[in-house]
Here is the input.
Amino acid sequence: MATMAMKAQFEASADAVWGIVRDFGRPDKFIAAVESSRLEGSGVGARRILGFGGAEVVEQLDAFDDKARSLTYSIVSAPLPMEGYSATMRVREAGKGRCELEWSCRFTPKGASEADVVKIIEGVYTAGFEGIRKLVS
Here is the structure.
């Protein structure tokens, strides 16, 4: 099993960034590549069905802590070269009017090298950070 993490700093309060991240059913707000997003259920156990260029990715909310500004989700099904993907997004204060978002995951490559899978994940996380930055600036 491989792991990776990326962090981004924002000139915004932790509550402002968490307000975007905590909306599990709407990653399309901050990840431009997500063409559609549909939520089934609510709270832990809810699933979001994301459309990407004709492909579907199904993710499930596995843990949610509003006070700690943290959520964990896993990929249930996706046309991606990995399995066992589980990610956590955590927002922390980083000084007056600043915060940090850490997005970490673990996965097992399947049909591709670990480096190739990391590149895919890095692309999604980078796009997410950029989208959030636009929303809070």
